[in-house]
Amino acid sequence: MHPAVLTLEQVILRFGPGKRNGKRVVFTNGCFDLLHPGHVQLLEAARALGDILIVGINSDQSVRALKGSERPVLPEQERAEILANLECVDAVVIFPELTPQKTVAGLLPDVLVKGGDWPGNQIIGREEVEASGGKVVLIDVVEGYSTTEVLKKIRACL
After folding, report:
1. Domain ranges, residue 122
2. pLDDT score of 118
């Protein structure tokens, strides 16, 4: 496992409240099944909002529950390793639940980032982050990129 792929406990111990030494921690999450330019642009924009970027990814089981039996294409450890090797990402945590609620509540990031396609009232962790003095930032989704569309193109070539 890549050294930047951490358990929830390790993330909290390393980056949780009281361990930050004045650095702003940013958190975002998703399935990140097939990495595409839209993902990279979101991650770079998220990283620009703070000093440390932690990315939560859905486990294989939770991706299947959310996206169907044919997903994920890449297993969780591979998805985590790819993300952990991006320059803008400081740590990756895999969460088994359908939502990152437990991860966000434990970490309490200074900034919680989601793609602009998420309705503000449906952002998991918003209440905890704002109650602890943090903020939620929506970043515009890059049009023309989605894992579902990439998979459609691949299947059309088969």
Report:
1. 5-157
2. 65
128 membership: H or E segment, kind and range = helix 126-131
Q: What's the pTM? A: 0.91
Q: How many domains, in total, are found in the chain?
A: 1
CATH of residue 54's domain is 3.40.50.620
User: How far from the centroid of its chain's Cα atoms is residue 20's Cα?
Assistant: 19
Q: Residue 85 in 3-state DSSP?
A: coil
Q: What are the two backbone dihedrals, phi and then psi, of residue 30, each rounded to the nearest 5 degrees?
A: 170, -175
Q: Which residues are CB-neighbours of 62 under 8 A, at least 6 positions away? A: 95, 96, 97, 98
The per-residue b/e assignment along 142-158, b for 16 or more CB within 10 angstroms, e otherwise, is: beeebbeebbeeeeeee
Q: Give the helix, strand, coil percentages of the chain, each rounded to 5.
A: 40, 20, 40
Contact status, residue 98 vs residue 67, Cβ threshold 8 Å: no
Question: Measured between alpha carbons, how far is residue 1 from residues 53, 57, 58, 106 in Å?
Answer: 19, 15, 17, 22
pLDDT in tens, 80-109: 999 999 999 999 999 999 999 999 999 999
Neighbours of 7 (CB within 10 A): 12
Query: Is the per-residue pLDDT at 147 higher than 80?
Result: no
